[in-house]
Amino acid sequence: MENKVHWETLEYDHKNRSNDWYWAVGIISLCAVVVSVLYKNYFFAIFILLATALVYYKARRKPLLLKCYLSDMGIAVGNIKVPYSEVNSFWIEVDNSPRQNHMLIVKLKKGLHPILNVNVPDEKAVEVFDFLSTKAVPEEMSEGQVIKMIKHLGF
Q1: How far, in Å, CA of 11 to CA of 63, rounded?
Q2: In the sheet that 137-138 helps form, which strands lie side by side, from edge to edge?
Q3: Are 106 and 70 contacting, i.e. CB atoms less than 8 angstroms apart?
Q4: CA–CA separation, 14 vs 3, rounded Å?
Q5: Is 69:105 a contact under the CB 8 Å cutoff?
Q6: pLDDT tens readout for residues 123-149
Q7: pTM of this structure
Q8: How many alpha carbons lie under 13 Å from residue 78 in its C-beta half-sphere?
């Protein structure tokens, strides 16, 4: 597989969270567990406890460094490889974060996760767009509102 364009990016933007953030998540979760038990909804209480544990785990975990490649065969992001036959369209959204990255958004034709989002450094954005324009259809898109809300809340 001959690599035409390549870059490295973090799996996600890691945010250092204060102890107050962990306390707030814990208190909110504990209140939800108490309400669930009062309503005798024990499965939901267990679900909340598991979800809180996963949120804590995700918040403390450092993001992986992913190697990204575009070639004549397809798109590779870490261990994910997508041939162009499975790509419906793509777009590069400008990200106004301090890291000055752009978001490559790839809409796939099928799969459980039909959207692939990948950070692209500012200096590679034009090169990525030009190369992908020869392989797939550019279609203006942006990150979903739920993703933007989750980022705004600090998750």
Answers
A1: 5
A2: 115-121, 101-108, 87-94, 137-138
A3: no
A4: 28
A5: no
A6: 888 999 999 999 888 988 877 777 777
A7: 0.73
A8: 13
